[in-house]
From TrEMBL:
Belongs to the methyltransferase superfamily. Arsenite methyltransferase family. The lineage of its organism: Eukaryota, Rhodophyta, Stylonematophyceae, Stylonematales, Stylonemataceae. Its EC number is 2.1.1.137. Keywords: S-adenosyl-L-methionine, Transferase. This is Arsenite methyltransferase. It is an enzyme of class 2 (transferase). Coiled coil: none annotated. It comes from Rhodosorus marinus. It catalyses: arsenic triglutathione + 2 [thioredoxin]-dithiol + 2 S-adenosyl-L-methionine + H2O = dimethylarsinous acid + 2 [thioredoxin]-disulfide + 3 glutathione + 2 S-adenosyl-L-homocysteine + 2 H(+); arsenic triglutathione + 3 [thioredoxin]-dithiol + 3 S-adenosyl-L-methionine = trimethylarsine + 3 [thioredoxin]-disulfide + 3 glutathione + 3 S-adenosyl-L-homocysteine + 3 H(+); arsenic triglutathione + [thioredoxin]-dithiol + S-adenosyl-L-methionine + 2 H2O = methylarsonous acid + [thioredoxin]-disulfide + 3 glutathione + S-adenosyl-L-homocysteine + H(+). It comes from the Eukaryota. Residues 89-242 form the Methyltransferase domain.
Length: 371
């Protein structure tokens, strides 16, 4: 139990927002490394659907997955497909890359002019990831590898060799929940991104703050549930790190198939959510109206007719759409800017912008959205 000072036995301390920190983070690192390096041998060993993709990935990802070596796929424990299209030529970083499945797909999407770096602390997984780089480079027909894997902790990216402001896109698949210091992860990601860069990732979230006995459960930690943040606490951490306006892409419920684990979790509900968080200087905490218009000009693979910015912004090709100042910045000042035209500036302010979903955005929402 936690005492009045916030201290508890076994090295745990609980903070105000309900997330858990370890006085010795090595305790969590060791448990995670053991679960993913030795306990699990394939996805069939999982006891929940937290680390299983609920929906079929889009075609542009499926087309690349068929080229990924089978061993890489078998050792994949993600909870989504956090890989946007249109990333050719970008520098991409994958947090907690594991066997490297998403890195291999990203390498195909980024092309020979882009780079992909995977960071992971589990040596067994990195051995699998590194084993197929040369073979995969030949399959893609690239003159040299654009893919590399490094050993390190996602809380200390600079120590792992990731330079500040060097990345256009950071992805992660069901990993940040495993970190003993989530605020530091978000701060490190923010520092590693270039201005106009983006954190695009899937992870597990909870409908409430979890009690200590859940957060300390070894299997629930490995299954990505014990470390799940309460959704609203995650948003607060984003704001503190500099990601002022996190946007939700999709949300799917997670099924706990093990009855024993379900009893321990009680009525807490879990979701696999994909968020995108942009590093931009002028993002505001609310949607503000500057009379701006965004026009999607096409060019993104898999998005010939329309592009979805998030779960309530859909842009049909060549159709002018009124947007708030934040959306205008995301589309016109990020890596997406070559695909969009933004009309207007922030010279005149017209008050709050109504960002409720349009009818077309709701009708075309991807299946599985539930949050």
């Amino acid at each position: 139990m936690t005492n009045l000072t916030g201290e508890s036995k076994n090295g745990y301390t609980a903070n105000r927002n309900g997330s858990l920190h370890l006085e010795d983070p090595g305790v969590i690192y060791a448990r995670v490394q053991d679960y993913y390096g030795r306990v699990l041998s394939s996805t069939s060993d999982l006891k929940t659907t937290a680390c299983c993709v609920a929906d079929s990935p889009p075609k542009y990802i499926r087309d690349r997955l068929v080229k990924v070596p089978e061993e890489i796929l078998q050792k994949f424990y993600g909870c989504g497909t956090p890989l946007p299209s249109g990333i050719e030529g970008l520098n991409v970083l994958d947090l907690g890359c594991g066997s490297g499945r998403d890195c291999y797909v990203a390498a195909a999407l980024a092309g020979p002019s882009g780079t992909v770096t995977g960071v992971d602390m589990t040596e067994e997984q990195l051995q699998v990831a590194n084993a197929h780089v040369s073979e995969y480079t030949k399959i893609l027909g690239y003159p040299k590898p654009n893919l590399r894997f490094v050993s390190g902790y996602i809380e200390f990216l600079e120590k792992a060799g990731i330079e500040r402001e060097s990345m256009d896109l950071v992805i992660s698949n069901c990993v940040i929940n495993l970190s003993p210091d989530k605020p530091r992860v978000l701060s490190e990601v923010y520092a590693s991104l270039k201005w106009g860069g983006e954190l695009y990732f899937s992870d597990v979230y909870c409908s409430r703050r979890l009690p200590e006995h859940v957060r300390k459960h070894d299997v629930l930690l490995g299954e990505c549930l014990a470390g799940a943040l309460y959704i609203e606490d995650f948003k607060r951490l984003c704001h503190h790190a500099g990601f002022t306006d996190p946007r939700m892409m999709s949300c799917c419920p997670i099924e706990v198939t093990d009855e024993g684990l379900a009893d321990i979790l009680g009525e807490a509900k879990f979701y696999s959510i994909t968020f995108r968080c942009f590093k931009l200087p002028e993002l505001e905490t609310l949607c503000e109206d500057y009379g701006q218009i965004a026009i999607y000009e096409g060019g993104i693979e898999g998005n010939a007719n329309a592009y979805r910015l998030d779960d309530h912004h859909l842009f049909e090709r060549n159709l002018p759409v009124r947007v708030c100042g934040n959306s205008a910045s995301m589309l016109g000042e990020s890596w997406l800017r070559k695909y969009f035209q933004i009309v207007g500036s922030r010279d005149v302010h017209y008050g709050l912008f109504d960002c409720t979903p349009s009818a077309s955005a709701v009708e075309s929402s991807p299946p599985g959205d539930c949050c």
